[in-house]
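Thread title: Can someone regenerate the structure for this chain?

I was given the following input by a collaborator and told the matching structure tokens would be attached. They weren't. Posting the sequence so someone can regenerate them.
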Amino acid sequence: MKTLSATLSRRASLRVATLLAALFSFGCASVEGVFEPSCIAYAGDRIEFRNDRFEWSRFTDVRNIDRDGNEIDAFPDYPKAGTYKIDSATIEFVTDDGSALDDHFLLERNGDLYLLTREQHDAVTAGESMPDCALRRGE
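Best answer:
Regenerated them for you:
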């Protein structure tokens, strides 16, 4: 007959093994693909991951025109491109000119993979609901 402590110890070991497997699988998971807003959006970010590189662009349906009738670029610093590194569920971006961008965080929900900002990630892990229009990997 098993003792109570042996049963509890086995359950704790299974939980730890499950947690480690989940963390390991995120570290090895491919994020290749395109992350775009998970809703109909008129402005936002689009991040594509391909061949260990990223391209981050921004979009909007707003058009501003200067006095001469020329369109003004809404996002003159974009697109940004470079390499990325996955550390557990954190994605670290480094642009081609060597600049580090804000980290983002992977989160899987209902079979979908999301890419969250630090603020979004902190809110969700604190128990808040998923943010509206969070970046989700397309099919």
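The longest strand covers residues 43-50.
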